[in-house]
Amino acid sequence: MSNRSILVIYTGGTIGMMVDPESKALKPFEFKNLQQQLPMLPLIGADITFKDMLPLIDSSDTNADFWIRLAKMIGEEYDHYDGFVILHGTDTMAYTASALSFLLENLAKPVILTGSQLPLGVIRTDGRRNILNAIAIAAEYKDDKPMIQEVCIYFQNNLYRGNRTYKDNASRFNAFSSPNYPKLAEVNTNIEYHKSFIHVEEPVKPLVVHDKMDDNIAIVKLYPGIRHDFLQSVFATPGLRAIVMETFGVGNAPTNPEFIQLLKETVNKGILIVNVTQCKGGGGVEMGRYLTGKHLADVGILSGHDMTTEAAVTKLMFLLGQYQSNEKVKQKIENSLCGELTIE
Ligand code: ASP
Question: What pTM was estimated for this model as a whole?
Answer without folding.
Answer: 0.96
